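User: Fold this; tokens only.

Assistant: Input:
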Amino acid sequence: MQIAFLLHHAYGIGGTIRTTLNSAHALAAHHDVEVVSVFRHRDRPVFDPGPGVRLRHLVDLRPGSDQYDGNHADHQRPAHHYPRADGHYTRYSHLTDRRITEFLRTTDADVIVGTRPGLNTQIALHAPRGPVLVGQEHLTLSCHSRRLRMTLRDAYPRLDALTTVTRTDAADYRRRMRLPGVRVAAIPNGVPEPTTAPADPRARWVIAAGRLAPAKRYDLLLRAFAHVVAERPDWRLRLYGGGPQRDRLRACIDTLGLYNHAFLMGPAHPIESEWIKGSIAASTSSLEAFGMTIVEAMRCGLPVVATRCPHGPAEIIQDGVDGRLVTMNDVDAIATGLLELINDEDRRRSMGTAARAHARRYDPTHVAERYSDLFTELATRRGRGNPLGTLRTTLHRTRGTLLGTAFTVRDTLRKAHPAHTRGPAA
């Protein structure tokens, strides 16, 4: 089976990039796999997709490159196909529209997989009949704007399948969007087994990693760690990552007097060699799409103290077995969870062992098996070359198109006559 992943860009650092390349590498053991990066910003990708995966790009933005497209006239014109409601809209252009459409019309792939809402929309609306169309959601439905949800509601019924990274989000899509005939499946991100030795439970370091952004609530972690230091001044915190809140967190460290106990380490790659410097990991997010850093830490043998935010952690951590789930946005609860493990080395050791064992279910080979089964099921149902399968596909896409049109007409009527129309908002 030929599988093509359409990715915003494959040359940077990010969870979607990492997990897409992990899945592509694992699938390449049994399938013909290609990763198509819309943009290329550097010569070599940060994450090596492996020898079995073909990697190519559509638009070259490398300064000094002979194929540089940054000054292309069409790249100065706004995108028409890429949805305005997607947060990356301003990065797309008439040139990306044209080259994505050309890729969709010329690819020999049996399965085309989009990896963000805007690309899923382009696949759904502009791919020709033939390939199985799969949209991946690496965020959550609840974090999308209402405008984007309306765009997706029109496009997603034309997909063959939609995958989310948590069961909770899959349930949200089934409940809140009308997707007749679309297979909605929860398939988590894959995290490979680290090549390092497991973490030492005697290490007196707490490790956290992720983008320094408001939703990660590292300000709460620092305040909680101030309580930890008051009781256990022999422990320290390392926080890895970059982002817009770095200066604010630096000021928070100074205000709390943690300059000898909490350290902003900056981005790190590979991260495995940093996880194992600690014996406890912390995740204090108010919003997670999945919790990839939680799985990374567990694979390195660290129990994780994580807030019980709406998606992700509770589907990964078995509370009291391989980590601790604590109340979200509660400094005292975070501090108590950390101190519970800090003050009990035997428990750190047993939970770390359990974390490492339980996290094996996220190995990319297992995740790839689930994708392979899904793709095979969809291709069989589609029946390429089978008249009945082709008819079934045509009817499904037509129903999706009619449903999207009906939603658009209804919304137009609501705007024109708000007092005479009723119904739940998307």
